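Good morning,

Both structures are done.
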Amino acid sequence: MESQILMLIPVGVISWTTVFVFTRKAFPNRSFNFCNRIVSTIHASLAVTLASLSVEDWRCPVCPLASKSSPWQMQTLAVSVAYLIYDLICCLFDEHVNIDNTIHHLVSIVGLGAGLAYQKCGSEMVAALWITEISSPFLHLRELLKEIGYKDTDLNLVADILFAAVFTFARMIGGPCLAYLTLSASNPILIKAMALGLQLVSAFWFFKIARMVKYKLTKRTNSERP
């Protein structure tokens, strides 16, 4: 790994921490989780933008497969690794430490870190980043709306449906295609394992999200009956 990319990670951790500190100062009456979700939304938007800009040919967004990562792809991955390290530390300072979330962060750091270490399969890695982060702003919007008083409102329901729709499109349509391409190419075994694991986790969350949306729509329908 080039020293310039390696240095980007600690600088990124400090930068994300600084953004969080300023967010806390800007919203002193909001919760720790609220401010952290704003930072997470900023990262998701930045990650999707950087991943999109790193695509070499939109006729085949994941091409070339199993190839040497470009400098832009390496920088994109480093920015997200830095964010994940920041967010992992941030989660440990929250009131309730979520073991599932901690494991998710550790696995993601190992996966993206492997891509940086191998300096290979950059196209597949940034595509995975795009797929996993494209629905994140809608995920965080749901929780932000709840804290500012819009829980169980039409606006919150719209956010739920948008999140479910974008998640389904990205994880259950784009995800399997990316997993197949990654597994069929000559990628390192760790990268292939991460691709398969990501798709299995996505399928698990898809069913949970589908149940959530069904419950909320049924609840809304029943409440409107005379």
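Second structure follows.
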Amino acid sequence: MPSAGLEILGVSLAFLGWISAIVSCALPMWKVSAFIGVNIVTAQITWEGIWMSCVVQSTGQMQCKIYDSMLALRGDVQAARALTVISIMVGIVGMLVAMIGAKCTNCVEEETAKARVMIAAGVAFILASLTQLIPVSWSAHTIVLEFYNPAIPDAQKGEIGAALYLGWAAAAFLLIGGCILCSSCPPQPEKRYVPPSQMVYSQTRSIAPSDYNKRNYV
């Protein structure tokens, strides 16, 4: 079973990944405007997230607008909304389970049960990592395809925003923290050594020779 310091490290990394996932979900900088070709006007920058889009002027003024219809969004944005919310909710479950099975708490007394609870928390963090990694990578893949698509005008092309990099970092922290907590193997039962003098052997019964065998030797 890992030490308390290793357990704290795993929970801390998972907590940091969970906070990063929340920030990545809320930020509108999933896709930022790309200044390529004839699109060299930098008077305004466009940010696109999964909840809203923002326009930042060169004067520092920013205007954001929440998407009016969810069904009008692209498939990757709709999936990103669902998966990021699921990741955050699974992270909350993992944090609660980790608090129950931590060494510094008395919610569970038995060491074997504590180890199993921490393994469950680690599995929850790993699931949260996967549900965070899928939408971030999917959105990045879509942005890259649109960037290299010659049919799309340069003014509509974008680049990977800071929120996607933060989402990748969140998935990495959740994955590492979950793997550390999954190393909480239950203690094996002690095998007691029994000296040979105390070992019990089964007695073998001797079979008396029959009368037929006696007559053969006379």
